[in-house]
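Could you show me just one protein sequence together with its fold in token form as a worked example?
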Amino acid sequence: MTWSLGFFINSILLGAGLAMDAFSVSLANGLVEPGMKKSKMIGISGTYALFQWFMPMAGWIMVHTIARIFGFFEKLIPWIAFLLLAYIGGKMLVEGIQDLKTQKNGTEEEDASEKKGLTFGALMMQGVATSIDALSVGFTIADYGWLMAFVSAVVIGITTWIITICGLAIGKKFGTKLAGKATVLGGVILVSIGLNILRKSLIGY
């Protein structure tokens, strides 16, 4: 992989796909705390972005450590990346469709009025829960040098920050009606990226 427009577009798409879970959570957080201050919104979205930056870098380091010890592992990376993204994306698709069905039936798992404002501990758990899938991106960007991997992770983090702060703002005004659709979109994006990685590995372009 070389520095190109395609590199940045791919990183943005990865960020958008991976950020959909955090976007859905942000919608809920905005709904629960409609009077949330802008400083808190920036802090919450910044936390999600930090986790989304860290996880791909951690995955990249793991891949390169293992690949150097076990040479044969390098050939498996495209397949692992495809399987992981297909699983994560497929899971998001199923969850998104279920959310849409729940919304259509008019059922809610929990009354938003009974929820409390987001605490620091809850935010940390949300950050981990919504970014753990991004660990697999280390396989997706395994052919990048460390600088390109770092920049890609930064782009993913910035994309996440923009998407989640929008999610908080939308949640404050309109609630969580978009959550299911966002999750479905994220699933489609991740599965598509996984298929493209496998295609490049098999065909070579």
In short: The two ends are 11 Å apart (CA to CA). Residues 109-115 have pLDDT under 50 and may be disordered.
